Amino acid sequence: MKKTEFVLPAALNPVVQENVQRLLSGGGSAIPLFKVYMPESVLEPLSHTLMSGYIGQGPRVEAFEKALAPWVENQNVLTLNSGTSALMLALRLSNVGYGDEVISTAMTCTATNVPIMAMGAKIVWADINPRDGNIDVLDVERKITEKTKAIIAVHWGGYPCDMDELNRIGRKYNIKIIEDAAHAFGASYHGHAIGSISDFSSFSFQAIKHMTTVDGGALVCRDTEDYKRGKLLRWYGIDREGERKDFRCEEDVAEYGYKFHMNDVNAVIGLEQLNHVGEVLRKHRENASYYRQRFQRLSKLQLLDYKDDRVSSYWLFTVRVAQRLTFMQRMKDAGIVVSQVHARNDSHTMFKEFRRILPGVDEFVEDQVSIPVGWWLTEEQREYIADTVVGLCQ
Hints:
By secondary structure, the protein is an alpha/beta fold. The chain folds into two domains: 42-274, Aspartate Aminotransferase, domain 2, CATH 3.40.640.10; 277-393, Aspartate Aminotransferase, domain 1. The chain is built from 13 helices and 13 strands. It has helices at 14-24, 43-50, 59-72, 83-93, 110-118, 137-142, 163-173, 224-233, 264-274, 277-294, 324-333, 359-367, 379-393, and strands at residues 77-80, 101-105, 122-126, 148-154, 176-180, 188-189, 192-193, 200-204, 217-221, 301-303, 310-311, 317-321, 368-371. The strands form three sheets. A seven-stranded mixed β-sheet has the order 1-9-8-5-4-2-3, sandwiched between helices. A three-stranded antiparallel β-sheet has the order 7-6-11, with no helix packed on it. A three-stranded antiparallel β-sheet has the order 10-12-13. Helix 2 (43-50) runs antiparallel to helix 9 (264-274), helix 3 (59-72) packs parallel to helix 9 and helix 4 (83-93) crosses helix 5 (110-118). The radius of gyration is 22 Å and the shape is globular.
């Protein structure tokens, strides 16, 4: 893939210029943990769309949804303005409301759980499996009550959760299963694409994901009726495809909705990204495979326990290390950006009423950290990262 360089405007003063460039490059000379992939080939179709006279939700959005369908093995794709909106819409379609309970994980971005509160519902934290960072299915079932309306499962780092067991629970108790697949575009479980397995799958196309539409997301619905309702709700509840006497004035709106739709500008970027995301995913997985081989027998590092029945997208390569703070400082000194990426959500004041004992989360957050695994790494950088980790953890 051809590397695209961003040229800063000459008008910026040198100090601002240096600071902005450091942000854009992932930390100046350091090897970044995340980096935006944007091919130069996007410029021509983007320019055409920008100058077309139509930049709202239009033909490019429809084309992008159709192009996404094979990747998620599902035709019921609703593109949206963010992955957070996708979760909110999934909760609405699950009929989650005031006083209901949603079982979720504290080991995720706050964007996973804020929508639950926005619906007026209560968060019930399930514990996680500290060996892979994903929600603990046994604890999920223990937490179910008559008020439980939905379960949100986050695929940590792109590694799929135990979806057969979660969907069994969903069927048994008549509870909707919502996959937060923000990390997991292109991942698969038992040979099936993430997006084709549960009631709802939420994807993020935010800047640093495997593929980006600058900002954006998608909700994939298993049930066609949910898809049709979601299509209305993403644009205020208005039927944009129905007959109208006045093209600007809607007919009766039966149910209130949101302004969650995607626009053609985002969609045209997504269409071009789809031409490259297969290669992006391949590089992430290739780098991860190299690390797993190099780190197998380190006494101070524990690899996550990944099963062969599913394929991770490896948005993150998370390891568990002894003396994490020392490890992180040494990696920083070596010019390698590392991070825990997400803080446990139950540590935040806004979630204080939902706190409970979560020993799996306690164990995981004690020593988990992610190292660069992305498409941008050269072979020399990858080897340097691995050598540095081995030197610190053997």
